[in-house]
Amino acid sequence: MEEKEELEDQVQRLTRTVDEMRARMAALETGEPKHANGAAPSSRRGFLRLGAAAALGAIGMAATKVLPAAAANGGPTLLGTANLAESPTTIQGDVVGPTGPPVQVFAAEDSTFSSAALSAAGGFAGTLQGLGNGNIAVPPTNPIVEGVDGWAQGTRAFGVYGLTDKGTGVVGESATGIGLYARRTGRIRQDGLIPAGTTPLYAPNDFEMVRDGNGVLWISTAGGVWKRVLTNDFGIQLFPNPRRIYNGYVQPTAPGTYGPVDATLQSDGTTPSGVPVGATAAFCAVQSYNAGVMTLYPDGAADPGLANWSGTANGPLNLLYVFVPLSAAAKFKIHTYFTGQKFIDVWGYLI
Hints:
Blueprint: H1 2-31, H2 44-64, E1 106-109, H3 116-121, E2 128-131, E3 192-194, E4 209-212, E5 217-221, E6 225-229, E7 236-247, E8 256-262, E9 281-288, E10 292-298, E11 309-311, E12 318-325, E13 331-336, E14 342-350
Helix pairs in contact: 1-2
């Protein structure tokens, strides 16, 4: 602030000097009598008048010249030199309607850049633009060109920080190349923002990824279906205890097709079993006290006609662990060739 106040004092002093010299010039103009016989001879007063005019012009330029752009603390911003500013400087663009693109207020462009590349990449409408060309013909051929660099030092520093309330913090877009690339270490980190072991409660974008409180990765397929991915069991998730999803005290009463059975719900029809929508198969214990042959297949698919469960007659308990294939909605059907009570407990699932 001291530099700013000093500059203002200098301008005020120059302005007062200009006013004083104008008064003196007026006195010189009116104080010299007119010559009766034509042009007046040169005099000391005339030289003083010319000198005063020259001085007035110089002082006026000094008092009214355009000053360099300065930050709020008075520090000048000069091209080609480092700038120290203790206070922020804001450059605000004009508004181009509620849906129009932002107005460019600053651009850094290299000497070989061609704007035709932007149209191929889908355009670039940012208010701050860094434009470079990595395909020049002279050596070095195809150099590395960074449009915008962000550097920060220390383990708690951020090179580039993208912050938003509900939108996307950072977007990397490429026409045919790599949108986002983690160089050097290749490390990518995600916060665990959902409770451990639970499906995310919000609707996902297609191909979105998120981690739960245990660091387990959830991904979504096209259509917004969450799938849980575990890196230590190749997609197989086991439960600590079984959950009954089919109670055959009533069914089946005759040979035929039964279901569909929703593998995501226990046999009461309301309590979640732990199998998520999007699982490809349910790991089940299929049991019966009666003889029988069953085929378990995805809901919506044709009955393959090949049994994947069978039980012997008069046995104390017929039990078989089997992966039951599921539909996209995690449902399956049962085709039984004999009557008898059947029970299905789920122990886990396969992504």
